[in-house]
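lol ok so funny story. i was supposed to be doing the assay writeup but got distracted and ended up predicting the structure for this chain instead. priorities right. anyway since i did it might as well share w the group, maybe its usefull for someone
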Amino acid sequence: MDSTEEIYNKPKKFDSAELIERLSVIMEKDQIFKDVSLTIESLAEMLHTNRTYLSKAVNDSFQMSFRQWLNTYRIEQSIRFMMQHPAANQEEIARNSGFLSASAFNHKFKEVTGTSPRLWLVEKSVGVR
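and the output, tada:
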């Protein structure tokens, strides 16, 4: 049996599932996705890991790069926001989703969903699929 000192000094085994769980908690609870300056480095620091482990966990779990995952996450949040606030303007949606500007939001929204935010909202409100 290992002594307490040996247990604390042993390198921890990389646990992708545990890291993704902590990532989900911090994204939902603290809504850090709204921080326009969020980077993989700053997020790794918050999670007490390094960028390499975080990148690997995101790549393995979501089959996309950290940047793609973050933008997809922000788009999902923007969709929730638009559904709750259909009269919100592009700047409000962008700000509440973590995008620096309405144009950056529009570009990424179309890249992820294949349509513009307004057209998406109109289609959803009339039930068009």
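Residues 106 and 116 are 6 Å apart (CA to CA). Helices lie at 4-9, 16-29, 40-46, 51-62, 66-84, 90-97, 102-113, 117-126.
back to the writeup now i swear
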